[in-house]
Amino acid sequence: MSWLAAVPAWCWWLIALVVDAGGQQYRVVVAQGETAEARTELADYRLVVAENSRRAAAQARAEEQRRQKAADEEGEHARKKLEEVTSRATAAESAAGGLYDEIKRLRDGHRATCDTIASQQRKAGASAVVVLGGLLEESDRMAGSCAAALERSRIAGLACEAVVERMKGP
Questions:
Q1: pTM above 0.70, yes or no
Q2: Is residue 106 part of a domain?
Q3: DSSP code of residue 13
Q4: Per-residue model confidence as pLDDT tens digits over 36-72
Q5: By three-state DSSP, how is residue 117 classified?
């Protein structure tokens, strides 16, 4: 132990200070390495999150486009059906117009033939033909408008159901 005593006390303090400073420097270097590794992991995580976000957005856009396309197709299908119904209703109204003309002609013919019959009989017969003809015209008109409204409603309901079914996906 004689050589230990030869070293002054301040040197021992200096050696302890150098060893402690070296230990602290080692801890700093290790911490810097861990920080760099954490930054790298964070950057990688951010890339993964950004990629997943991009994929989710692309899938959402694709699904939205699929649904919009389905809704557009069903809307076009319903529009075509409505055009068809409208054309059939127009044809039915045209045919009804012909029937109305025929009823009018029959009324006029009835009136002409009834001129030879007694006044009292003619009034009763003419009023019955007029009332029945009017009822026929009105019921036909109402039936046509009800049928057209029901057909439009049915087509709209079927189009809505088809859109909902297609929204559910394949």
A1: no
A2: yes
A3: H
A4: 999 999 999 999 999 999 999 999 999 899 888 888 8
A5: coil
Question: In whole angstroms, what is the distance from residue 149 CA to residue 9 CA?
Answer: 111
Cα(170)–Cα(160) distance, rounded to whole angstroms?
Answer: 17
Within a domain: residue 1? no
Domain tally, the chain: 1
In a domain, 2, yes or no: no
Output 158-161 pairs: Cβ under 8 A, ≥24 positions apart. 158/78, 159/74, 159/75, 159/77, 159/78, 159/81
Of 109, 159, 158, 156, the closest CA to residue 130 belongs to 109
pLDDT of 164 reads 81
Residue at 66: amino acid letter: R
